[in-house]
Write a structure and sequence with these properties.
By secondary structure, the protein is mainly α. It has a single domain, classed as MetI-like (MetI-like fold). The protein contains 13 helices and no strands. The protein is flat and about 75 Å long.
Length: 295
């Protein structure tokens, strides 16, 4: 005789309903609406017409490729500096030295302080007339007179990166510090017994063990940096002469400042596409490196 089939237990699926509804309302619906608007001439005019790929053609016919290149340059430089400085800070915070707890507390203010307040402080320091950086540069002889860091293209670009690194490094350092503290101490003791140097232990034990954490944090940091808006907007609003206009700033200017919602939606869709491609390539690279390390 055949066994009677068990009734389906619907309770686990019911528990998933709130999460599914929230995801559809907060994520899926706005994405679908943005995609729809990207094919229209939506603006302040209540009448909206379907324009096909016209918004995308306008976008690429202008300076959008330059904006894309600037965005990736800003992201790569910023994330690289955050990972390097954060790793060095984590190593120092993990060292058995007096006052280690106090140093761990003091590294957090750049990340704890509201971003707007921190960026405003950096804006004052970049000021050429009364800013600390310009004054210090003149005092030690690096500058011959007041220098407006945010008034020139190259200096403004680097100034926004420095501010972004200052804000993002503490989180990277604390995250990598937690990863370092999870490494079994037996590995270090065995290597120390065999006469391995401190650098050798760091290179052959610490780095391989924290590599998954570094991969996760670098990806998250890349996405956050790519979508960073407030730092650039407060400091330069994308200037001077669009020197700091990234994709997110360009999207905001088009959709909000110029009220071209259709063109702004097209730019937002491109941001999603770029981030999706970047994430897939990143995970593929990490998977390949992990397999190579396991062999």
């Amino acid at each position: 005789m055949s066994q009677p089939s068990k009734p389906i237990d619907w309770f686990p699926y019911l528990l998933l309903v709130p999460a599914v509804v929230i995801t559809l309302v907060i994520v899926a619906w706005p994405l679908a609406e943005t995609l729809r608007l990207s094919f229209t001439d939506a603006s302040m005019n209540p009448e909206t017409h379907y324009v096909g790929l016209e918004n995308y053609q306008k976008m690429f016919a202008r300076n959008f490729p330059e904006v894309v290149g600037r965005t990736f340059a800003w992201m790569v430089i910023g994330v690289t500096l955050k990972m390097v400085v954060g790793l060095l800070a984590a190593v120092l915070l993990n060292a058995a030295v007096p006052g280690r707890t106090l140093m761990r507390i003091l590294i957090m203010p750049p990340w704890i302080v509201p971003i707007a307040i921190g960026v405003f402080i950096w804006g004052w320091m970049y000021n050429g007339q009364f800013g600390m950086i310009s004054g210090l540069g003149q005092r030690i002889g690096l500058l011959s007179g007041p220098f407006e860091f945010l008034a020139f293209k190259n200096s403004a670009f680097m100034a926004t990166i420095v501010t972004d690194v200052w804000i993002g490094t503490p989180l990277v350092a604390v995250y990598l510090l937690a990863a370092m503290q999870s490494v079994p101490r037996d590995l270090y003791e065995a290597a120390w017994t065999d006469g391995a140097s401190r650098f050798y232990r760091f290179r052959r034990i610490t780095m391989p063990m924290i590599m998954p954490a570094m991969a996760t944090m670098s990806l998250l940091s890349a996405i956050w940096t790519f979508n960073s808006f407030d730092i650039i907007w407060i400091l330069t609003e994308g200037g001077p002469r669009n020197a700091t206009t990234t994709m997110i700033i360009d999207t905001y200017k088009t959709a909000i400042s110029r009220f071209r919602y259709g063109e702004g939606s097209a730019r937002a869709v491109m941001i999603v596409i770029f981030l999706t491609i970047f994430s897939l390539l990143y995970f593929a690279m990490i998977r390949k490196l992990s397999k190579k390390g396991a062999m």
